[in-house]
Amino acid sequence: MLHLTCEEFLTQLSTKQPVPGGGGASALCGALGVALGSMVCNLTRGKKKYAAVEEDILRILKEGEELRLHLQNLVQADADAFEPLSQAYGLPKNTPEELAHRQEVMEKCLKDACQVPLRIMEACTKAIALLEELSEKGSRIALSDVGVGAAFCRAALDGASLNVYINTKLMQDRETAAQWEEAADAMLKEWLPRADQVVEAVKGSIRK
Hints:
Number of strands: 0
CATH topology: Four Helix Bundle (Hemerythrin (Met), subunit A)
Number of domains: 1
């Protein structure tokens, strides 16, 4: 997916093709948010004014770049996981044997399709934590970019959760579905408010 230009990606996203979809868009949104954090780190590093937090900035940059690459890879991973599911929906179900086969294939594909958005969510929680710290230690001239990064990661976290829920809803293994829904619920409960706090703190600082 990421070999496409921005225009090509958006054009393909707008078509009726199964991929990219909401999961890949969420991963890309998260990667954009982390990249903004890395930009702020690069604007902060090496400046005398921020010498006291230089080590922290370099650590945030390193961890952020690892997350960015991870989220970039998840754009493709989401496409790879969802395409078999989209094909499974078209399997015949005219006989009991066909129906049983379809259900078996669907269950596997649904579970595979849940894994990527959960990983996107986990990556976004880590990114939000870095942006929290960066909002306090990063260059003040780029503070708005920290807020935008947090807003993007928040959207990616929330968006990826929808891809978890739409797949768990159809799973027959209700115990596993409930576990994954609880994991998604917990991440949203903690990290959406924390992302909001970063955005609001940035607004408060730049509007003084």
